[in-house]
Fold these 2 entries.
Entry 1:
Amino acid sequence: MLSHDLIDVIGRTPLVRLRLGADRGVEVYAKCEALGPGGPGARAARLAVAAARPADHVPVVVSGAWAPAVALVAGRLGHPVHVVDDGVARPALTALGCLPTAEPPTLTPDAVSQDELAAELAEDLDWIDVVVGGDDDLRATAGALRAHLPGVRVVGVRGSLPRNGSPFDELYRLNEHEAFEATRNLALDEKLFAGPVSGAVYRVLGELAAKAAPGTRIVGVFPDRGEDCVETVYSDEYWARHRIAELPLSTMSAARPDEALRVVFVESSDVIVPAALGLTPTHVRTCADPIALRRTVLRACGADKIVGVLSTDHAHQAVAARLAADLGVPGPSAGFGVEQVGRDRQILPAESNGTVASRAVLSRLFRLTTGTELVQAELRALAGAGDPSFDGVAGVHFLRAQGILDEVTGVDLALAVPGVEEVAVTTPTGDRIGDHVGYVIAWAATRAELLDRLDQAAAHLHVRLRPARVPYPLVSREAMVNRSVVTVGGVEIGPDTFTLIAGPCAVETVEQTFTSARMALAAGATLLRGGAFKPRSSPYGFRGLREDGLRILADVRAETGLPIVTEVVDSPDVDLVARYADMLQIGTRNMQNFGLLEAAADSGRPILLKRGMSATVQEWLLAAEYIAVRGNNNIVLCERGIRTFEPSTRNTLDLSAVLVAQGLSHLPVIVDPSHASGLRELVLPLARAAVAVGADGVMLDVHPEPEKALCDAKQALDEAALDGLAEAMRDWATLAGRLSPDVLRQVAPAGQAR
Ligand code: PEP
Ligand code: MN
């Protein structure tokens, strides 16, 4: 067969008679959709690309398993293809010339009607009694099949229910064991090396063939390849790890979709959800908008048919619970799935040392104590079929550590402790440890015995860390190659923007703060600064309005929309200040007040960490490390001038420190030219210098009547200086490539009413 374009060869996939059913005179065929060029999804990719008609040079963005098919089609048509790297088929994609991207996909594998597939079947076979296929693959094609093959029965297998009524005459549900076993049988019996959807279809073909009258003609659509499943379906190790063989082999059932009571599964990708107890699982993809999600579910199911909402994915338990509450049906919290180990020991008799166990770990514990699948038990609970009975107590011990993992030793010894079922190391060697490197799972008859076994196992395990190359690993570039973005009340500070923070040195009166905020806005500021707690060198200085000042700031925020940056001077005040502030400022005098750093970190608020006036860059980064080590990575560094021998300015602005800190750390670095110079006349030139050197923002003092300011009067910009400030921000930040002219158009032009 000669073709002049690879795209023309897509489709025309082999249609092969199987041995299955032959002994009874039943004809069973496999339409091998995965065997053409581009592999699984090529036909759909060609249709989707044709329908989307991407413009020249605008990249097509795809992700997931069908990305190679799209890469083939779109690439042949001359469109650049960008791929969201989710690890699927990466070498193939690189070979096809795809570029990585973080943009959201522009092309998603929505069901596309494959009229062509239906036409090919009709051409090859003339008439067909039944077509069986994965429900996702066949959903949109059912109409075309009926048009080309009058009287055909269309049977869906596995996965989700259709969104708008059902196109299927029957739907079959299989669990993983059933699907995987059938996939292996397909390879053994028919020598077709395929994936689990094909396996599930094969199993249903067997079921139908066994009951069909001689002469019946049945076609199965086989959409996936064995090569893509060597580490799952065909891996004994995978079977053992997931205890596939323990799932029952008799759950497969057919349902007439429109009559079924439904349990909704909220998932992010297709999973095989079990059929049980007369309930039909309906699969919806999770989405961020709860109202849209509810609408989708109601459209797919009808309110009176839904009996509950579950999710097999740890990340979606909360979404599933919210959806259930919105629909007024039991959710995961009514079953067993959402109970976090260690939180509710009544329902799930399990123990954990703190860290919230993932859904996968929970399922293992549940299986250990009940011998049944968690999701099955949840379904039984929804169907009112009774609670599982528990035998003993299972628990998990997380191996907590911080740093870069070198090695975990003692795994064999830990596994030899009686009752220990699993020792998992989940962090790869050389990776930074998130919260824990892995865990031990054990079972015992009593809780005391369980805790003892977990302790014994843990005592054998030693986590060796790689020595960090810098003394401040968390804030260093070692932790993160790319520079980080810190978001304060919705305002981003980081490498791709330039942020102006302005306001009075101290909050003095309502009027003064409001006016200063309006001045800040007019200059293009997106955050408001202002101290309610002031650290002063002299005990006789104005030390701030304290909570009254915070209230004023909150009122001004409500009025202007500007999030607030304000200083906290003393650890006991952190809670109070954090209640009002969007960002906590740690002043130069407190940079090494380690208790205050920890308390501020624990507030969870982003932190503006000013450089100590006599601190080296290393000491500054170590102070930031004090915050990061508490789990708060939202830190912005602020260079505000250092103490030198030169008395003509208040401090000496150390602009090179901005570059040094940005080179050593991933944190944003801004500059405070007001405190650096102490002189109004120098503030704008130094702000321009900060932009030019590549700082991520500036923070400066403004005051409606500087001569009356209670604090730092000589450095505040007044009304007259504002035009210059707005101009400096608009022009210099654009010039330095920090802000696009579009962004700057939003900044009020100089001279606008303020
Ligand atoms: C301030 O920003 O008001 C302030 C007191 O700054 P610093 O800690 O840099 O002196
Ligand atoms: Mn000040």
Entry 2:
Amino acid sequence: MSLRTTHSVDVGHVEDVSPGSGALPPRAWYASSDADSLSLNGSWRFRLSATADAEDESFAAEGFDSGGWPEVRVPGHWVLQGDGDFGAPIYTNHRYPFPVDPPRVPTQNPTGDHLRTFDLPDGWPAGGGAVLRFDGVESCARVWLNGTDIGEFKGSRLAHEFAVGHLLKESGNVLAVRVHQWSAGSYLEDQDQWWLPGIFRDVTLLHRPAGSALDFFVHASYDHLEGTGTLRVDSDVDGRVSVPELDIDVATGESVTVPVRPWTAETPRLYDGTLVTEGERVPLRIGFRTVVLADGLIKVNGTAVLFKGVNRHEWHPETGRALDPETMREDVLLMKRHNINAVRTSHYPPHPAFLDLCDEYGLWVIDECDLETHGFTEQGWRDNPVDDDRWTPALLDRASRMVERDKNHPSIVVWSLGNEAGTGRGLTAMAEWIRGRDRSRLIHYEGDWNCRDTDMYSRMYADHAEVERIGRGLDGGPLKRRQLPFIQCEYGHAMGNGPGGLADYQRIFEAHDRIQGGFIWEWIDHGVKDERFGFAYGGDFGEELHDGNFVCDGLLFPDRRPSPGLVEYKKVIEPVRIEGGDASGTVRVTNAYDFADLSHLEFEFSYQVDGFPTGAHWLTVPSLGPGESAEVKLPATAPDGQGEEVQWTVRALLAEDTPWAGRGHEVAWAQQTVTPRGPLPAATGTRPAADSDRITLGPASFDARTGVLRTIGTTDVTGLRLDVWRATTDNDDGASWQDDVRNGVEWRKLGLHRMQHRLDAVELTDDALTVRTRVAPAARDVGLRTVYRWTSDGTRLRLTVSVTPEGDWTVPLPRLGIRLGLPASFEENVTWFGSGGEAYPDTGAAAKTLQWHTSVEDLQTPYVRPQENGARADVRWAEVGYLRIEGDPEFWFTARQWTTEQLDAARHLTDLTPGDTVWVNLDHGQQGIGSQSCGPGVLPQYRLRVRPAEFSFVFSTVDD
Ligand code: GAL
């Protein structure tokens, strides 16, 4: 089975299913207080070969001259460096980008030789040993120090350590690492992400003083009935454990119970301690908490938790999976600021520093093993490594490397065996090993719906109806599963515009105890920064097989700007519910935290008239405990709107600075209309006048032959007509494997992107201009009879559009409204009263309705693959440049510097350039968004059914 070579290059390990040789047993990852360490990150000499055996191993010998080699940055992926000279990234979702013939890999196996010399720093102690630690190398490495081969390993996102004390010199040490992109390990690492070879996490030399701590296990449980914590630190090397704040000073292995404050994701109380062995002091950050499966529920400290989570891949648009500490912190801060309380480390253990941050800031963590064999689904899971005993040592190696490295993090409450690896004996072996080693956490794995090895029933992308059935316990399944809690380890596929339907899921999650929440797929778009495209996705590097922009499906854009999806999620999962109370002027406040009371919040109250704030008051809300509610009296009486709409807004704000956001940060909010706006002016009474080529009506002029609007006041208007098309979103298009109707596909089949407008009549009467049309696609008998009725009172122009469907429409419409072109100079000035951010029928939870002002450019949402975006919902009125538009009823408002057709054709944002027209859509209806790019489509209540409709706009000119 192993690779044969004609010369003496040892590459047999590359295709060997074993995890490797030479490394030390896995152990806890920690930073010593006093033992020396030397970071070997930085610039390394680098040589790229096309095959594993192209070059012999002489580069590893002392004295080798690498002067002519270029350099790479470590940590880093070579394919993201070298300006294209070092190959390119490949993106596939689940298909292996090489023939499936385990454990064989292609002859063409990009191989990077990395070289670095180093001196020991002054003062590096003479005695003791030393360990060389690699925190992450993709996918297989062999290591030499000073010419000696010290071992080889696989398991890309796991730490590997080697004892090197006996090889070190004071100066001129030569560290050589040969990294192969493909190896037997690649079969276990088929996660949906870019294939990115390289030494992408830290390389560190650790001094190991005599008597240093080797491995240790902090057991810190919490008894919620007694309010006490029990601490015991098991250590390979005996020592003492002290926690001054708790007056703890005990020997390792000894238990001590004292009153403590527990650790939870909401109240992440950590106690600083120290483990002192003869040769070393190790700082401990201890969080007391107990995780159990009780009453069929996941309970922490006696309370069932509701995960409001995200799936996080490690990603940076320039450095790939090589993340700097600031980026990790930014992720945690962004999560906390968006009410997220849980993270699944999909689909591999993250850099350990990320877990430190989860402990510190408070996030529940599902730590997932570096294991996915999804590509075997292409062959009905035949030869799946997780069901083949030859691979079991590699699987156990991965499980133990995860657990041993990460076991001292209080934030980790669940171990996950991996992702999408089918089912098999290897997974059972992993679960058994984990249970034997750590009984203090639960086990997750989604792939086995019978829950043979797991402590919870987990699914991905189950639709609302199924989740509801599961919540009610009507989903059947084996007895074991029926007794387990349920989580959606992935849902709400955040690809492009969306996901839709989150609020509907949340309602179901909260209605049933058995459902303990979910994790949005996923945290961040994996777009690669690229001069050609802004951000590149699959196919942009000429890959033979790829899955396009399926790699851009996050709540954050690649540069970590929050997408509307994240803002929506924040609102949907807000930990305080504020609802309009009774008519006498109250508001109902409910604490939706699992552990915290509301004393950390203050509540701001204000009225708005026509969307404009009128001054703020404080609302006095009692410090409710979890699950409690109160009716609170409004602090002021509503102003007289004099015909304008009057609403109130309540905002729950942080009352004090926290480590993750400052005082005043908004946690939750609600709005309610108290007095609706008055009716729109009828705008009638003026008689239309016609000459040979022009009709005038009040401030407007029309083409006499076609009845098409030309001007309003001094503003030129182009192309005003009915519009039903939108540049399909990833969720409209749906994934190819979806077996239900994919609207985006049906719409195009039907021809909704090329509707023809037939003119039937232009009629002038005493008080109106009426234009009768039929709007329909070629080759089909369906159509929309569309009547535009124009009236005016002399200064204002009113349009009423009536739409009557004809024929048998079997799909909803993308949108229904009018579009019109305005002068490009109007770009800079847009004001409206409606939702502030992007909103569609099923993504509008976070639509805060106020008066807003911005430019057309800033109304765009920069989805990496351009698509319909940027609609503002519930718009009462909008002003674009000099044109004011009022709607009856409220409308969806969109404006762009390009047409929908241009947006539809674009593959990257760089394909879009502003033209000489601002295109405005005023929509009476929009189809919902759903989540069909990898999940359920649009729920029935958010579909834009084809039926008769009538809607009006009143146009006028804004004064200078
Ligand atoms: C899941 C998988 C994820 C990702 C997602 C779609 O099946 O676990 O890794 O591929 O679908 O984006």
